[in-house]
Specification:
Low-confidence stretches: 102-120
CATH topology: Arc Repressor Mutant, subunit A
Strand content: under 5%
Length: 120
């Protein structure tokens, strides 16, 4: 996929990777952030199944998606959904969760520390 993105930008894949690294990010981090943001939006629709959300963000099964979502956010998709239902669409707790993607560079799409330790 990075090759297609690089082609569209008229640079080689290695040049794109180098430039992203110089900017403090990587292709994988950018994809993860976009997937996370899209997943959050899709999870806000209670009638959309987690399996459908997983497929929409590029996962073949919901368990892989759930592991990634937990890595990104510190909670399972079902817990995120419950939080959204409790807090409402503009809940401060959810804003704090989404702000875990703190940029390292001027780009709004850079991914910083993805989560703080979660204690069970």
């Amino acid at each position: 996929m990075i090759k297609r993105v690089a082609q569209r930008l008229n640079v080689s894949a290695r040049t794109l990777q180098r430039r992203l690294r110089e900017g403090g990010t990587s292709y994988t981090k950018l994809v993860d952030e976009i997937r996370f943001k899209l997943a959050c939006r899709l999870l806000d629709a209670p009638r959309t199944s987690i399996t459908d959300v997983a497929a929409a963000v590029g996962y073949g099964d919901s368990s892989s998606f759930s592991r990634s979502f937990a890595r990104w956010s510190g909670m399972q998709p079902k817990a995120y959904r419950r939080l959204r239902a409790r807090q409402g669409r503009s809940g401060a707790s959810v804003r704090r969760l989404k702000n875990r993607f703190t940029p390292h560079s001027p780009s709004d799409f850079c991914v910083g520390a993805l989560k703080t330790p979660v204690h069970h």
